[in-house]
């Protein structure tokens, strides 16, 4: 009875779910591809590990986890009698597996500095199309789901909506690796409550508390982790380094890697990433190592701004952060800039690199985005913000905005 | 170097915290006392295990768990520089260890049926006083803390308030044993944020998300577990059995245990439990075994009402439950009563035992009770319902009320 | 698209696995049956909770858990290409669901005292046959699997062997509820390694360390939990109570329940439980409540032996235990008996009830029982005790025997 | 009552233990030092994440975790009455905090290739001495403990022995992040069983099963993780890259970082690392980024051997591995070398870089190293290998050796 089995039925160990099964050869081959392997070298949470030292997990692991949840969701929907063909199941699974393939290192940071004009979502689609060509059209249906062009639109919602497999995995995973256990959500229960109504996802009414919990956990993770003030400080310091490096790129010695050098020297915004075949090639090689190794190299660079910022990140001497619900007065900022000039012997223009100010905001629940529908026993549907009997989720629909100001600790 | 050590330094295994240490001989001797051992035979959540089969944990284990958290809280407060003497620490720990010692089996059910006029809190105090006499006044300070008569009132808040060791342990423990993981709270983090301001407990401002999470988790546990409609049904069925048994107590054969027989035959309300020395003696023997074994005996009883209800609980053929945000119309109830009379050949008066109607309500956060104070870096204090920037906890301060109607499934 | 769904597709919450799904109506109806509901009132580990206070979980929960693992095992074997029909899957699942249905309260204790001559295994089969009659033969195949009369014998091994779903669930569950985390096993990994060779179960060679771990964990649970010396003491005290009650059963007042009274009055051994229809009826009503409530009643009984033992168990004043690798000398026992007579004013014959001596032994791995086969890549098979490269599992095949002696602490 | 508190009382989030407290300012300042911050950039398990994608945790986090266990161990020993002064406690804690400070990136790999002649232990001591100078002798006692020159030798055992805080943390942590849950050990229980006898550590006899479990878990982690065949393959491929890079270092373009370039150009062995002040300076800058970024640069290098190996690691096209209990015949190796020459058009000498052969071995328990003592109630002491009643730990004292052979998959 022992049976011929493909060597491509691999199992990954995952501390979050135990085991993750690779369901078929196409998944296996996509995972083996260098585009996907690159995600092993891109941390899910950028510099967050400077605050939560366990947060070193990668987009590779997250993508596998989201795929795992998708397999479960499809199985549960099928058990409830919703028809999903084998090919649709594969396509939905591949769509979520590849949803982050366009992410670069320190993604939000780079998109605001050296890779402007294109988002990681459009790059994900571009790379999926390249893979589709290499795999002779095997990803057609996955791309239809990813771009919300599939007749069963609930499959697209599983990939992207306010309660999709992406969010469920990243909340569980980020909570797990940071150790912020309050962010853990009960994905099993939410998945068990999934229904499809009029081609859209819905949640059974008895799952309403779990959805509320999900929204509250997500909000907690935003303020406690993703927008943690020290993380904000580190990320904005990295932006400043990259902006400085871009400004002085001609004089940067050629120690840094080719992919990073390419993007530092790029003038202006991209219209699309494949406007230049080199851009796509270098992008698909760019990872955390290129960026952080550059910081290590610039630790001793003659440019004082570049050097000071690089040292501060490498040695984790992060800037002091102040947070406020209103913007900081210009006089305060001017005074700080002046202090920076004096203390570090910098020009007025250079001092801007050592003063960070900005704002950040978060919606716990976006009523304009794909809504979370609650399905009642009588077949009626309500949005979660109306369905909740008390936890006033409608209150959570207003964005919260916070202003921040960061500067070297020595000036505090 | 090996050292004489008391055999009374015991360690309990606890799946929730790992290990629970008994800190000294007085604790050990109190735990050994038959008053406290009785709590081994009283389930924390009464009949909830009929819905969540793991929920068999006892008030014994909960009391040890709350004591464990108290030890940690005291240690953390001392580390922060708040002065707590060794005797105060012992007293606070004993106050929480014994806070539930007056609970009877299926406590809320019995208080509304056969043990009327006294609450478990007053019985806890009574039993503590008896123990204090036996232990020659060693519990004086514990009683002062328990009754909020201690100069360091924050110690009383650790025993009883909206964020006390009791709640923290029961939320963690009930979540753990039911498997409703969303109810799990991060006690470690909340304890780490504890401060004392003006003799009252407060929480550091950076712990605000954890407190919000605590309130939301508690609310979720209420609706998902404590007030779960099938649990409500089972508990009200038990009330009906006990009321029926009380009504016909003279004809109940003497199979049932003496403690239960005593309370079934008691006429009217207690003024206080020690008005009759027998009452106290029998109460201190009464546990889940007396009550549930009576149901097993009444399974074959000639009184049809007693028999039907007992069979329904023992075999878990629980009543159908309907829930509504408004009360059910009297005509509906009358029609159901008529059906019951017909179907079961019961008199109109007897039919009342098979129809249950009532209401239940819950506050997620009571602004009138001891408030949850948030302490800011500038030393100012706000109530959590004002401090939260978005999660409108003030909304949670209104009670939610639900009406229920339960009747035999055969009539549904 | 919303779909008619049976109300019988229930989900149980389980803190061990998260959720347990009831796969079909037959399972649902069997679980609802009073035979199966009785298991809710039978603790898996008898009096073990006197040492590990969390160990209150029931045979009901264990049976559901083992069924859950069976569902997973079948799914994984099918994924590997082994043919299992839908009806076989249902049958295997029901066989494991009902494998413990013949267990009585404090099972091992009762089998050695008041229910002699029949084992719980034979009673399980008897009750399955009764259920089969009620369900018109729907359990035929389940019974074939349970009795090892099914052509696919590997299905019988999943129900009963040294690495069956029963053991996997009870090790995980007992470890979970006692808090002895070292007993936790990785059921997921072992299940993922299952293969079928020549109609027998085998484990892929790369799972060898997990199997070793399983055997070591099981051994640890034996000595740390199942044969814990205080648990031994409590269980043997309960045997002594029951033996005493049996001896003096005519004078026992009729407070105790009918099922227990029946078995106390039974003379001699059973040949089979259904030799007397009353025996089967009463057995199917007997649970922990009958036995422990009797102890509470006997707490004040005029018979001194019955009273002393009952008080000691109820108030948890357990006997002192001594353990030795050799038997205790008769003189030692005689001296203790004499002390007991003097101290408690008992006759020589009565003193035997307060002195417990005996031995206990455990095999970590039984080479004579259904072996654990390891499957190598070349298709060859070895027994685990030969396959392990170093952990000398063959050493674990010898039984370890320990002698114990228990007596009232006052004599220590 | 609010109190002046140092900003240096920091708390780290840790998914393994929840929270880790920094006990005092000296610890804080050492953690802030760039020597210690470097450990943030050195993964505990090198390339193991290529097999277990979660295994990205760092020596930084492990060092904090081991410090956390040390704090607990000291607290528990003090509770048992063993005298440990405040300064000794601080010293032991610092000794374990810094025990890995001399580790380089991919430590075992580098010690066999480009940093020969000095072990990470001697470098740890060297760096501790430098820190001691900077901190004006504050580390004198910590160094005495680290070097086993302290009168309370049990403190040195807590830092280094077969059951030290280092091992306990790494087993727990590696098990946690790999997801190999069978490697998890119950550190709490082992710590609770610690005693001191004749200035040496011992374990109470009732902890014997936990110690056995610890040894078995460690053995499992060795074979399942540390010596996993694919990990072996990756690590030996990295060795080959570095050896090749060293051989052709003059022609390596200057893209690689200065610290790595220094060590690649070093001729021969070090006598001691501070024989050259540059060596120490560069070593204290060297981390995973230097090494892995070099692989990314060499991905396109003209040297074919360097390029092939670098591509294979970066894209995770790892060599096929064969394992055997006996060495592989020379003819087999010669044939493979010949195939490599043909397939890749390499010289005979170059082909050696693409063929890896070697052996690996592991002791589960070393009887020659600091033994694990079991303390009996009568005060006697036995080595664990004699104390265990059955699990033949003496069998585990023999080393197990396995031979391996790795080569490009294309030749398989």
Detail the topology: elements first, then pairings.
4 copies of one chain form a homotetramer.
Chain A: E1 11-14, E2 18-21, H1 25-32, H2 34-37, H3 59-79, H4 86-97, H5 107-111, H6 120-134, H7 140-146, H8 153-159, H9 165-178, H10 187-192, E3 194-197, E4 200-204, H11 208-226, H12 229-247, H13 258-265, H14 277-283, H15 288-298, H16 304-314, E5 320-324, H17 330-344, H18 348-351, E6 356-362, E7 373-375, E8 381-383, H19 384-387, H20 393-396, E9 400-407
Parallel strand pairs in A: 4-7
Antiparallel strand pairs in A: 1-2, 3-4, 5-9, 6-9, 7-8
Helix pairs in contact in A: 3-4, 3-9, 4-7, 4-8, 9-11, 12-16, 13-14, 15-16
Helix content of chain A: 40-55%
* Secondary structure tally, helices of chain A: 20
Looking at how many chains there are and whether they match, the oligomeric state comes to homotetramer
Alpha carbon gyration radius of chain A:
23 Å
Proportion of residues in β-strands of chain A: 5-15%
- Structural class assignment of chain A: alpha+beta
Number of strands of chain A: 9
The poorly predicted ranges of chain A are: 1-6
Largest sheet of chain A: 4 strands, mixed
Largest interface: A-D, 44 and 44 residues
Q: What is the string of helix and strand elements of chain A?
A: EEHHHHHHHHHHEEHHHHHHEHHEEEHHE
Q: The CATH topology of the domain at 11-98 and 139-227 in chain A is what?
A: Hypothetical protein af1432
Gap from first CA to last CA of chain A: 73 Å
């Amino acid at each position: 009875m022992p049976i011929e089995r493909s060597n491509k039925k691999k199992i990954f160990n995952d501390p979050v779910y135990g085991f993750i099964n690779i369901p078929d050869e196409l998944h296996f081959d996509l995972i083996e591809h260098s585009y996907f392997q690159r995600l092993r070298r891109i941390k899910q949470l950028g510099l967050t590990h400077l605050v939560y030292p366990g947060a070193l997990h990668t987009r590779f692991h997250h993508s596998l986890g989201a795929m795992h949840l998708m397999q479960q969701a499809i199985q549960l929907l099928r058990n409830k009698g919703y028809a999903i063909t084998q090919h649709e199941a594969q396509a939905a699974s591949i769509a979520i597996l590849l949803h982050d393939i366009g992410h670069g290192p320190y993604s939000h940071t780079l998109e605001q500095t050296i890779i402007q004009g294109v988002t990681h979502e459009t790059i994900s689609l571009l790379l999926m199309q390249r893979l589709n060509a290499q795999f002779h059209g095997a990803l057609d249906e996955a791309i239809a789901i990813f771009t919300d062009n599939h007749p069963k639109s609930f499959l697209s919602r599983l990939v992207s909506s306010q309660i999709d497999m992406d969010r469920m995995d990243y909340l569980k995973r980020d909570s797990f690796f940071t150790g912020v256990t309050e962010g853990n959500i009960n994905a099993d229960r939410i998945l068990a409550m999934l229904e499809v109504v009029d081609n859209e996802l819905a949640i059974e009414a008895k799952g309403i508390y779990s959805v509320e919990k999900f929204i509250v956990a997500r909000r907690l993770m935003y303020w406690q982790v993703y927008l943690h003030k020290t993380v904000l400080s580190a990320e904005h310091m990295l932006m400043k380094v990259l902006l400085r490096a871009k400004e002085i790129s001609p004089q940067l010695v050629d120690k840094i890697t080719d992919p990073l050098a390419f993007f530092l020297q790029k003038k202006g915004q991209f219209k699309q990433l494949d406007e230049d075949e080199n851009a796509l090639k270098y992008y698909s090689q760019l990872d955390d190592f290129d960026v952080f190794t550059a910081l290590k190299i610039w630790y001793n660079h003659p440019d004082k701004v570049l050097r000071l910022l690089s040292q501060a990140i490498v040695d984790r001497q992060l800037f002091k952060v102040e947070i406020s619900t209103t913007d900081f007065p210009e006089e305060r900022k001017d005074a700080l800039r002046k202090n920076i000039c004096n203390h570090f012997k910098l020009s007025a223009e250079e001092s801007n690199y050592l003063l960070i100010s900005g704002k950040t905001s978060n919606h716990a629940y976006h009523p304009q985005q794909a809504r979370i529908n609650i399905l009642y026993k009588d077949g009626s549907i309500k949005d979660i913000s109306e369905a909740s009997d008390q936890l006033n989720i409608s209150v959570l629909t207003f964005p919260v905005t916070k202003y921040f100001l960061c500067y070297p600790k020595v000036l505090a």
